[in-house]
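Observation: inputs received (chain + fe (ii) ion).
Thought: call the complex predictor directly.
Action: predict_structure
Action Input:
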Amino acid sequence: MTQTYDAREVAPEQRAASLVDRLKQLRPGTELDVIMPEDRADLLQAVLEAAPRRFWFSPVDAAAGQGLVRFIARLEASAPRVSEYLAWDHDRLDSILVECMRAAGAGDWQGAERCATRFRDGLFRHIAIENDILFPEFEERTGMRDVGPTAVMRHEHVEIKHAVDEIVQSAASKDSEALQRWHANLLGVLVEHNMKEEQILYPGTDRMLDDATREQLVHRLLLG
Ligand SMILES: [Fe+2]
Ligand SMILES: [Fe+2]
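Observation:
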């Protein structure tokens, strides 16, 4: 089970240093959920500056200010790649969806709705950083905008978001049959979508960039 750390309990001027100290205690591959204070963006920026290659993080909910952010200690402090960060985020989101379906299957509709909302918030943020940060970079470098892989991915994002909204709705109305159907619809698009990104788009972007530009891009994705 992932441990939780409450950054709000630390005085503002010590928050960044304390959080970095706590994160440095994580064994590689392990995760920590951090309850963020109001200065969330500044704190994330400070962690990135203090230890630019040691941790990945993604918000667990949509709260712009406070809220939960999940951190993971990377296995090695090598130069970060887009493929590594966004594939981790796919896996992180997949497991929230599994948890959601398990809760619904056990009749825990409150839990299912909470997970479904969390899944939607996380996946919509993932899609937003792809649409707004990653794809423009790919399109600019390849000159492929209206045709090519990003056009297909953008189109699939619309379908994915629709299915996810229906999943949240089905969980809220405790409609097991609709939930199963929209879950199957979602997986019908999402599994292959993620595979194409992980096998083609992400490594393709990684290959097109030099080390410094790639690292800057990953930092923009992390903070996006
Ligand atoms: Fe995507
Ligand atoms: Fe993705």
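Thought: report the result.
Final Answer: The chain has two domains: 3-73, 82-223. The first strand starts at residue 3 and ends at 6.
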